[in-house]
Amino acid sequence: MKSSKSKKSRGRSSPGSGRGFRVADQIQKDIAQLLRLELKDPRVGFVTVTEVEVSSDLSHAWVYYSVLPDSPEQKERTEKGLSNAKGFLRTRLGKLLGIYSAPELHFVFDDSIAQGAHLSRLIDLANNGEESVAPLSDATKA
Q: 44: which of 16, 20, 27, 81 fits an S-S bond (Cβ 3.0–4.6 Å)?
């Protein structure tokens, strides 16, 4: 898979050409724009597309996203809204990309922002000499 960010891999293989990276970057920009400007589903609130990975044949795209507020209820509503909007987003994406076949979209919740905020709180507490901190909740880990 090609990733829009070369810093990490989520377990997908990465073939040699740069086309997959360029397509993943463009998909990330286009999906973010479609979510912000065209998708009218009230279940999909503040969504940030954090990363996109595509298969080597460009037939699948994994769209990693985070939501605000970071609550289990909002996460579930957004997940259902994105699932229902897959067809619309894929059709619009195909027109925007101008490629023969738009990739099948797979939306994956990305909790790295919540994990980063939790680690930042731990570091701040350690620097201030405090000993106890609430663990990262299961709702934000899921």
A: 81
pTM for this prediction: 0.74
Nearest to 56 by CA among 29, 89, 16: 16
Q: Are 34 and 70 in contact (CB under 8 A)?
A: no
Interior angle at CA 106, CA 103 and CA 110, nearest 5: 135
DSSP 98: T
Cβ-Cβ contacts under 8 Å for 136 (sequence gap 6 or more): 114, 115, 118
* C-alpha angle 90-94-95 in degrees, rounded to nearest 5: 125
pLDDT in tens, 99-134: 888 999 999 998 887 788 888 888 888 888 766 556
Q: What is the CA radius of gyration of the chain?
A: 17
Distance CA 78, CA 119 (A): 25
